[in-house]
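General statements about sequence and structure are easier to judge against a single worked case. In the encoding step, the backbone of a single protein was reduced to a row of integers, each denoting a local shape. The record that follows shows the chain in one-letter code together with its fold in token form.
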Amino acid sequence: MLHSHADRLSRPCCRGHTEQMSDQDLEMYGRLASWSDLLTPPSDYAADADEVLRLLEEHASAPLETALELGSGGGHLASHLVGRLRMTLTDLSPGMLAVNRKLNPDAEHIEGDMRTLRLGQSFDTVIIRDAISYMTSEADLRAALETAWVHLRPGGVAIFLPDWVRDSYRPHIEHGGSDEGDRGLRYLEWDRHIEPDGHTVNADYVIVTRDGDDVSVYSEVHNLGIFARATWLDLLDAIGFESHRVVGAGLDIFIGVRPG
């Protein structure tokens, strides 16, 4: 069963910081990066990793050995894949990459923006999870998909797991968090109505941290992209992918195979 919106908090996260750091100065991926394990523990991602790997292998034309994850955040998903794939993990946030390096010391870590990153090498697979939701325009979304394309070998497969698609989105509230020793964290996430521009949603966050007797409260708004299924599939096709849509735990998952 694949996690949904709360995954943003654990990585991205992960989204990592965000792929819009110039537009959004978000404490979740800066000052609060070191708290990411208490937002959602890495152990919660074992089933997600199994499902992602299953879908990748199902669409791959050859055995998978190397993987690039764009917007990998704190590396919670990657922690369950590094023993099965040689992982290169990228993110825009130095704070999230520091957490990632500690959790996944055997992986390669690179700071970079998924819209513009060019490593000059190819991989068997590219993974973009909920960090893709920080693409707030079709141009940004296409740029991220093109980054996946240029880093795939012929016959390689990419997987994209957005938080939501426009076709099925409904405003909602989520909450969670955990404790470890004298430290604890709780969050409330309020995903609001689709904005008048038709392709973004504002998500309000309230985060409470406790370190011993020291309690702090943070709040911020994340502006997130939301696109129709047809937009996703049209962009994948236009770039050159063989596109596929699958559904896992009620979430739309998009697969792009680079012909070869």
The first strand starts at residue 66 and ends at 70. Confidence is low (pLDDT under 50) at residues 1-23. The longest helix spans residues 46-59.
